[in-house]
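PT: before anyone asks, these are the final sequences, not the draft ones from last week. 308 residues across everything. Please model them as a single complex and drop the result in this thread when it's through.
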Amino acid sequence: MMEHTMHNHGHDHAHGHVDQEELKILGFWIFLVTDVILFSTLFGTFAVLRTHFNGGPTGKELFEAPGYLAETFILLTSSFTSGLATLEMHKGKKNSLIVWLIITAILGALFIGLEVNEFSKMVKDGATISTSAFLSSFFTLVGTHGAHVSVGLVWMIAIMVQLARYGITDVMKRKVTMISLYWHFLDAVWIFILTVVYLMGVM
Amino acid sequence: MSDHVYEEHAHGSIKAYIIGFILSIVLTIIPVVMVFYHLGSKQIIFYGILLMAVLQFVIQLFFFMHIREGEKPRYNVIALILGIVFVFTIVYGSVWIMGFNYMVQ
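LR: through. Structure below.
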């Protein structure tokens, strides 16, 4: 609680002070790099195993364009709306900020709903994580991304609650910036999932 | 008073987000169309859509995540570049080394 009313130091490097909120943002960028490493290993694995069908279904047979295209544009739009949210934040408009975060979260939830639907259908059709190496790496890569989005949704809701409570303080600005970065990052990862998994899978 | 901390950050503008959004949409539609309508050889499509994915990523980096020129040391850019080194090593390295396993499928 006190954290939210304290004022920050300025960029006073001459006196050895560093802006705490800025430092935390840098720390979060570094965390995102570790997340990049995680997804790299999952992409690398998928790249190696993408043709190991074990006699089972291929991407071409399983992937449905309306599904993954809808997921793509929904997530992209949610990345855009999270940007609009931060614009409102910088203008100091708490209610507009919260509204755009709600819209972002709704789009995110839609994305998850579509993906759960997609996975369920695949499993029902006999394409499970243990069917083939291709499917193991598919479910792990895309599932991990989906798990990240789900965590992001919970986090976003928590931020909305805190915003309603504390308003736009320096600390809240940093928090909103962080979750915004996280959300943009997830859309960036999805760009490559769409390209490498779905598009290359149906080529 | 507490706002001065963020003035030096690249906030972005509504224009930046809209441009980024539209460019991202375009860079999504082109690969999809190329793949669905077989516009080109397999090689061209493969490298084309990969290139556009990288391009869209860079665009989102600039327009959404505000990786931009600033007066302050850009440690986040340095961290990101290191991240890209990791990606390349892990992904390309895996594909390369596992390529020797041609006896297995």
